[in-house]
Every structure is written in C-alpha cells, then in structure tokens.
Design brief:
The protein contains 9 helices and 13 strands. The chain has helices spanning about 50-60, 75-85, 145-160, 175-185, 195-205, 210-215, 250-265, 270-285, 295-310, and strands at about 5-10, 10-20, 45-50, 65-70, 95, 100-110, 115-120, 140, 165, 190-195, 215-220, 225-230, 235-240. Helices cover about 35% and strands about 20% of the residues. It is α/β, with parallel strands linked by helices and about 300 residues long. The longest helix has 16 residues, at about 270-285. The chain is globular.
C-alpha cells in the first residue's frame, strides 16, 4: 500500500534574537512616525523551519513517508543536507537560484514581545512546482505557502484524485470567501485552530456543521483545551496531552498535523489519529525550535500508551 504523504508548503530559516530590555523603553509613543532604533541582541540562534519542513520532520519521526513539495533559494544547501540525513526526500524541492530561502527574523524582548520580519523569497514561486511530478501518494497536505502555489496545488491534487488536507494557517487571510469555499470543496479534510475557524466561517458564511458536511473530517485545535474532530455527523473530543515542559509553541500545529497524516496513511480511526496528533504537539512544545524533538518511533509509541492506555 502506498503510504507516501505529499507535504506542500513553505521551507524557511528562522533567525531568533533575544533583546535583554523592553521594546517599550526604546519606542516613544509620540515618535513612532520616525522610528530609528537599534536593539543589542547578545543571543541569536537559527532554526530550520517552514510548515512543510516541520510537518515532514515529525511525520518521519513517526515512521511515515513524507515527500516535500516546496521551493528553496540559493542558500538552501544546509537545509537540503539536513533533510537528506534525516531520510526525507528532496527530489521535489524546486531550487530558485535567483532567490533566497523564505526567512523569518524574530527579535524578542524581556517580556516576550516580538518584532518580526518575514521575507517570502523562493516560497513565492510555489506555483512553479508541480505536484504531479512527485508521483502517486496516499494523501497530501496543503499548508501555508505562496498564494498562487496553494491555489494551483489544490486544483492539481483534485485533478489527480489525491485526497488532501487543507491547512491554510497564517495564509488564510490571503483568500476570499469564494476561494476558501473552493478549497473546502476540493479538500477531503480541513484543519484550523480556534482563531482560524472563526475567520474561515466569517469569510465563507458557512458554519462548522456546514464545513464538516462537505468533508470527511474537519479538525479544530484549541491549544490547551484540546481539539475536536467532526466526521460522519459526529464530534470527537480529543484531550490535550500534558507536556513535560512548555518551552516553545512554534511548530506545535505542524507536529499535530504530522500525527493526522500518519493516522490517515495507516488507516487509524479518527479518535486514535487525533490522540496521536495531540501527543506530537505536546512532545514538540517541550523543545525549543520546530525540529529539535528527537524521540524514536518506539519511544513515541510508549508515550502514547502511557497517555491513553493502548498501542496505536
């Protein structure tokens, strides 16, 4: 049985800097029209990120078969080398030699306020990477990516007959109501967090019940309140798994989605898939960075059994 998951989405480098003071002490409210400030950042780290990279990383930990369909730039060598060492195929990553990788520059202050700058770079050319070139797959996910790319991937996956999970994430505001309804109608599954589902309903005029009726499953995550899966006319409540520590929420949603994809490709029931997704989010949040949790497949299985009393 083909268990390949096509992971369509961004590949990015995050540069995270820590400012020891408070932004409010350097930014004067009556002078914001002519800001010219510099923050000393004694600590800095870079992290591999982007939604497709994060999802593929956690899916590989689970023993899944991710195949990334994304775009990177001239500075892609280190990331590509990392993916290859992890055993994640890079054959369907398009390289744009005249662009840089998508990059996020984050500066945080002592109160965890953040000033971010995001450069989409090569991600903007996602529409030039054809999903058909990646070959057959059991399932795909459309995660945040270039605007044109997300639209094209949805059409192409529907034409190819490959079921897909639509995960608009932070790109959701880019689409109007008609486009979002078209995504929902083409998709087999949709996932959103509590904020995104409200925006999705506002843009489309559809209720949760309406959206779920057009899909095999609608998954809504609610952070520390757990998550809900609407499928077959019923609602399944998924409990949150208590994390060993709460260090960094970055990438938790991507780890959750990796659990869903593993469940779909292995024909797990929705209750088990949701619980596995919840566990993956809890494992991720206990580590800084989106790709630094390093449990083995067996260790994840043990953690699942400890949390839920059975093996998946």
């Amino acid at each position: 049985m083909n268990k390949t998951s096509l992971i369509c989405g961004s590949l990015a480098i995050d540069t995270i800097m820590q400012f020891g003071g408070r932004f409010g002490e350097s930014l004067l409210a009556d002078q914001l029209h002519k800001v010219n400030v510099s923050f000393l950042v004694p600590t800095m780290r870079t992290e591999f990120g982007g939604c497709s990279g994060n999802i593929a990383y956690s899916l590989k930990l689970l023993g899944g078969e991710p195949r990334i369909v994304g775009v990177m730039g001239q500075d892609s060598a280190l990331y590509l080398e990392r993916l290859e060492k992890l055993g994640i195929s890079t054959k369907n990553i398009l390289i744009k030699a005249d662009s840089y990788n998508a990059q996020c520059f984050v500066t945080a202050d002592a109160d965890n306020n953040q000033i971010n700058a995001f450069h989409p770079g090569a991600m903007s050319f996602a529409h030039e990477n054809n999903v058909a070139d990646a070959g057959p797959a059991r399932v795909a996910i459309i995660s945040p990516d270039g605007h044109e790319g997300m639209l094209k991937h949805a059409k192409d996956l529907a034409d190819l007959g490959i079921p897909f999970l639509f995960d608009p994430g932070q790109q959701l505001p880019m689409f109007n109501g008609a486009q979002l309804i078209d995504f929902i109608d083409k998709a087999t599954y949709v996932t959103a967090n509590d904020y995104e589902i409200e925006l999705l309903m506002e843009r489309t005029g559809l209720t949760v019940t309406d959206i779920a009726a057009r899909l095999e499953a609608l998954i809504i995550t609610r952070g520390e309140l757990g998550s809900e899966i609407y499928t077959g006319g019923k609602r399944i409540d998924i409990p949150v798994v208590v994390a060993d520590a709460v260090l960094d929420p970055t990438g938790c949603g991507d780890a959750y989605r990796a659990g869903l994809l593993f469940g779909i490709t292995n024909d797990l029931d929705w209750e088990t898939s949701g619980r596995l997704a919840s566990l993956m989010g809890a494992i991720k949040i206990a580590h800084k960075g989106a790709q630094n949790h390093k449990l083995t497949t067996a260790e994840i299985g043990d953690r699942f059994e400890a949390a839920f009393g059975y093996r998946y």
